[in-house]
Fold this sequence. Notes:
The protein is an alpha/beta fold. The protein has two domains: 3-194, Vaccinia Virus protein VP39 (Rossmann fold); 200-261, no CATH class. 39% of the residues lie in helices and 18% in strands. It is built from twelve helices and nine strands. The chain has helices at 6-12, 19-22, 30-39, 57-65, 79-88, 116-128, 141-145, 157-165, 200-210, 216-226, 241-244, 253-261, and strands spanning 26-27, 47-51, 68-72, 92-95, 109-113, 133-139, 166-174, 179-180, 187-194. Helix 3 crosses helix 4, helix 8 crosses helix 9 (200-210) and helix 9 packs across helix 10 (216-226). The longest helix is centred in the middle third of the chain and has 13 residues, at 116-128.
Amino acid sequence: MDWGNLPKRLSGCNIEPNVSHLHQYFLIDEKALNRVVGIAEIDPRDRVLEIGAGVGNITELLAQQAGTVITYEIDKRFNVFLNSLVKQYPNITVRLEDIKRAKWPRFDCLVANIPFNTLEPILPKLVQSKVRSIVLVVGNRFRQSVGESLFPDQITKLSVMMHAFFQIDECFVIEKSKFYPEPATDAIVVELIPTKPKTHFLQFCRNLFENQNKLVEHVLRLYESSCDKRHPQKSIVNLPIDIMNKRADHLSSSDFKNLFLCFV
């Protein structure tokens, strides 16, 4: 489908993209669309999850390659586009609900063009999913806040969780002119590949995220007992008592910065 005429098609349906609240920016460049989907290396047997179907520009390409596509869209105005796709591709299932509150289905890979502020609420479910690959089209803010490597000035709860569970590969940049409406900055396509933590700090943080309902002190004891005794780690028992007595799911970005300092 020629997505270059999307502005005209939206206008014909009396649809104005919701930029301020839902951050609706649609990728309309065919070459870029194909590159995004190609990164996922979809197999005909795959069940693919898509977040934010919108007008179905990515959905259509996914349906041409996957066995099943389950796509979530919160904005019912796009039914006119999605219903047409479902008639053409019976392997598409559209769920008109908020992915942040939905019960997630089983899937092999995920492809999504989502705003950065949607990433943190869904990340706990992402890390629990047995998934092969996650391909995201995100704003430039992702590079500034997460990036391929974890640096001290980038430590937030989100960035730590991302690096504790995934290898983050920046695949390519999409110029802002390739979207409608045109956003303020270029976008970046990243692939998240499940991996083991690369540092002791990230391993400890992964333990925290996997034991969210436990006190930090309890998770610390579990971590210390699992450490290789031949390579003892720097003790973090002098961690401020207010952090030790917090539940793991109550830790703030500032707490994670303090934890990081204990491992350097």
